[in-house]
Amino acid sequence: MSLRSQLLKGILEGCILSIIYQQPTYGYELSMKLQKFGLSDVSEGSIYPILLRLQKEKLIHGEMKKSEAGPKRKYYQLTDEGHEALADFIYHWDSIKEPVDRIITREGRK
Amino acid sequence: MNAKEIIELNNEKRKELTEENLAYYEDMLLYIRLSSARSEQYTEEVLLELLEHIIQAQEEGRSAVDVFGNNPKEYCQDLIGEIPKETRKRQVRFSTYIILQFLAIIAFVNGVIGFVTYYFFDLGSDLTTFSIGSGIAIVIIDLLILYLFIAIIFRWLRNSAFPKKKQKKWVEFLQIWAFSTLSIGLFILVIYLMPDFGTTISIPTISFAAVGVILYILAKMINKKRNLI
């Protein structure tokens, strides 16, 4: 696995939790949202293994519902554990984000 | 929605795919469905999601390759790794269903053929005599052969997804035919080679058909209650 995909794996899970938290979402819409936010390098299909893992860990819950457009779709929403996991992610992300930024702007770009 | 309803919806929806996307998707479908002992519900739900995704991407001018990449086999393996295992309870129920149905057909066919050959062609006898011990041994060994047969066919089908080179239809047919013939031969060989042991009993041949019908109804009841197939 490349460094990029290793880095992305955990972060992607957090992003997916966050998007689902903002609004219950189905697979296709979720991948489009990720792309729109700029994660355009994430291949569209890569969300499905993650969605399965999050379900297995009981962080999200999927339910087949009729959508406005008509077809039945599986909409995901956060469980209580999912809310906790998201809060955890945001906490850890905040504590990493700025130090990493500081380090690489000072040291990494000589 | 249960797995059965999702499968029906999937069959319907698949018709919307272009030829190229359909070929790509059906390989994924085959490969994922035949992965052993994964939760059917989760499997079918994710298969429908993948299908919906391809259909929407297709409408926007992107192909299945654009969505899932050039290595669908590896993608499917990732996906299968995340699908929860089927519960033991359901696995046992499902096996029971298959075994009952299999025994039902064997018993029924045996009973009817024995009855017809005796009453219409005057062959054999209207009584079937067998030893209880060898009878049970035959059933157990033949069930094992059936299990191996199914397991090998599944694996074989699974490996036929994502072919590097498409195999000719008649070669495939010949392979399956040879393998099936071999299995059936093995099946009958067990019956012939089994030595007699245990108490010998004689029962009217036609009663096998009755047993078959009872087993069949039992199997149907298990299926109906649990919605297995």
From TrEMBL, chain A:
Ranges for domain Transcription regulator PadR N-terminal: 16-87
InterPro entries: Metal_resp_DNA-bind_regulator, Tscrpt_reg_PadR_N, WH-like_DNA-bd_sf, WH_DNA-bd_sf
Coiled coil: none
SUPFAM superfamilies (UniProt xref): Winged helix' DNA-binding domain (SSF46785)
Protein name: PadR family transcriptional regulator
Species of the source: Virgibacillus indicus
Automatic annotation (TrEMBL), chain B:
Protein name (Swiss-Prot/TrEMBL): DUF1129 domain-containing protein
Keyword presence, Membrane: yes
Residues annotated as transmembrane: 97-121, 127-154, 174-195, 201-219
Superkingdom, natural source: Bacteria
Organismal lineage: Bacteria, Bacillati, Bacillota, Bacilli, Bacillales
Keyword Transmembrane helix: yes
InterPro entries reported for this sequence: DUF1129
Alphabetized UniProt keyword annotations: Membrane, Transmembrane, Transmembrane helix
Pfam families noted in UniProt: DUF1129
Signal peptide from the UniProt entry: none
